[in-house]
User: What shape does this take?
Amino acid sequence: MSSMEIWLNAGFTEPRELITLARAAEALGFDGIDLPDHLLHPASFSSPYPYSDDGSVLWPAQTPWPDPWVAIAAMAAVTDRLRFASGVQIGPLREPFALAKAVATAQAIAGDRISFGVGVGWLREEYEAVGIDYASRGRRLDELLEVLQLLWTGESVHHHGAFFSFDDVTVRPAARVPVLIGGNSGAARRRAVRHDGWIGSYRTFDATLTLVEEVRRARTASGLAGNPFRVILTGPDLVGENLEALAGSGIDGVILPIAALGRATSLEDRLSLLERTAHELGVRAA
Assistant: This one.
């Protein structure tokens, strides 16, 4: 296998299993684990799910959605090499102080093994439930990221903007956290160019590579090409694809959903799937 990183998405996993899965992933040689994010599951949906053919959601209301930062901190505490990311957190639903502190605390526990994957989300009902305007979520996210970068300095900072306003405050612990923007929309890709990386949803090989090339060109045109920038693909359709071909196409890493690796009804089944996948992909412990 190439040097392309192989991550696992631990969505739809029972929280009590995450510690064991993280230890196994590290022992097998996987590079990282990311966790998806939703605050709630509304009783009914009018918002179409953008990653299914018919717009329907792919999980029942009883599906576990653990808080990413609580879960990541717990997994980081029992591993040494494995990296972690939110994949992706719906940033505009959160207020900045608690979010900054949660991410920075997890980063301190992990020893700088964490990236902040973030996007605007697609579920209008979540925004309505917490009383936040859905239409302005992109602008809210842009300002949120400005605020987080200030708060993560650990210094006394202030901010007065359209969505957040505060006088001098200090939030600790301080942290340096790479920001990876998730989403295939033009707005998401433009936002990613201004930050540290892009998490794209894989559809077809040619369509995905077109988006990757556009992001890389935009990054070069921005004058930021000399700074670190990561392109990562995620999605169930990656399973079974020719990852070597992707590795030669400007992709830094892929995120494989554990739930898409095969049928599993127990923790033992999932551990067997991880072992089989590692063998098939040539993933090996360092």
Summary: The radius of gyration is 18 Å. The longest helix spans residues 205-221. The domain at 5-281 is CATH 3.20.20.30 (TIM Barrel).
